[in-house]
User: Fold these one by one.
Assistant:
Number 1:
Amino acid sequence: MSKSSKSSKSSKENQKNLEKKLGEVLGLERANQKAVEEMISMKLLKSDTKDKAKEIQDEANSHEEKLQKVISQLSEDSDIKLNQDTIKDIAKETEKKATKMMKTYLGDEPDTSEALEFLCLAEGGEVTHYEVLSSISKNFEIKELSSTVNSILKEEQDHLQSCLNLAKENAS
Ligand SMILES: [Fe+2]
């Protein structure tokens, strides 16, 4: 695995950006799973909506695993040597922020439409972060990284669409 410098940024800057963004998506995936869990326990998601949200939650779990795998591979790679501790800290902080955002958004007496709209926001946030991560990944010639990021990005785009459909169906 080798690193190339196609961008105007230094390779150190590129690496820092990569660690930051990997930490953020990892934290968002965790927060997302917790959000679905919490919404189900608050009985905000029922029947078909609940099943769809659980599917999304399962996929978020598999995204988390795929990310962990690529992060640990790249932390052992002598060329790139990603800093796992930095990524872990950023993931923790991002998860905390996202969970706090959910609590603020839902307030004291949330209803199903608010829950679904928050899920749309969360998925939209993930799409944005993976889009940026995909751009950052182009600075590195690492096949596992770009293929993992791009395959998750596709699924996140589907998640966003599914959540939009759920929110619209619920409202109509
Ligand atoms: Fe997602």
Note: The chain has a mean pLDDT of 94.
Number 2:
Amino acid sequence: MRDRIRVCLIGCGRAGMIHAKSYAGLVNGAELAAICDADAKNLAAAQKIVNVRFVYNDYREALKNDEIDAVIVVTPTRFHKDIVCAAANAGKHIFCEKPMASSPEECDEMIESCRKNNVKLQIGFMRRFDKNFKRGREIIDSGVIGPVAMIKSNTYGPSEPKEWMYDIRNNQGPIGEVNSHDLDICRWYAGSEPRRIYAVGNNFRSPEKAAEYPDYYDSCSVTIEFANGVIGVVTGAQYVQYGYDARTEILGTKGIVKVGTQRADSVETVTRDMTIVSDSMDSWRTLFREAYVAEAQAFADSILNDTEPQVTGYDGKIALTMVNAGVRSYLEKRPVDI
Ligand SMILES: NC(=O)c1ccc[n+]([C@@H]2O[C@H](COP(=O)([O-])OP(=O)(O)OC[C@H]3O[C@@H](n4cnc5c(N)ncnc54)[C@H](O)[C@@H]3O)[C@@H](O)[C@H]2O)c1
């Protein structure tokens, strides 16, 4: 192994370009050597932002390049399994965005391909690298709030859904796209595996879509029973319009830890009409900017030091299992055992 890894980004969209910027100068021991996107327009746009030696429109060509040590897979979720398995068979280390794949069976195939080819596999749960979420975990581990009883985690996003997002039979909706982060963080804080899930949801903000997409939901609540008795409650919403809102509470038997705030900073303006005004967090890109760099650094370090990634394929598989059980519970209107 070289003392510096060369990375190829596969998928230069919204999340992909965050990773591109991390590896283009912010990660010690790693460099962005190549980018790949199936869409010529997106590829050209990415080339204007980052300077790389190799550019591909077909990931299979990128995998033939011996100069590339690792790939960062940030395509839409339905392509993750094929790309990850092909990359593992080509001997590349892999960072794969969440949700890991479409089914637990696909996750198993990805994990097995990486094991067989002795390459690293890290999944994109960057909240585990965020300094506030990490501090939450340290406080739990210190014992100061006593054993954890209940975890409440919400993520509400501002953006209007894209047309494909209304079709819940072909994507998992907010439970997958947004709340997979909350489900993973609940499991991380609970220190236990999920046993049963019950989800309810409804469409409040796009009533005009209800006739064409009767299963669409823009708001949901997911209750999780963990094996050690901890109760998780995850709420999700999209198109909330007031900003990006991600907060988690961990209630112990002797105290509570609250992680996250809606505020963008600590600046307040108070005027004589007796109002207090401050800025709202606009986006996950802003809130987790440093966490994305820290997660990229951890991936590079795990390759260079030959250590286990901090968020494994198994973590990705369990989160995906929770997502799929949640969507099934919502559609079938009953609790689902895991
Ligand atoms: N960790 C996070 O916070 C976070 C945030 C957003 C998205 N995501 C995840 O990242 C993934 C991508 O989401 P996005 O919002 O960036 O999507 P996007 O649509 O903005 O970008 C996807 C890109 O992949 C390209 N692409 C599609 N098929 C390809 C293929 N076969 N080979 C190469 N390129 C291909 C598309 O042309 C597009 O440029 C999803 O799995 C999503 O859930 C994670």
Note: Residues 32 and 88 are 19 Å apart (CA to CA).
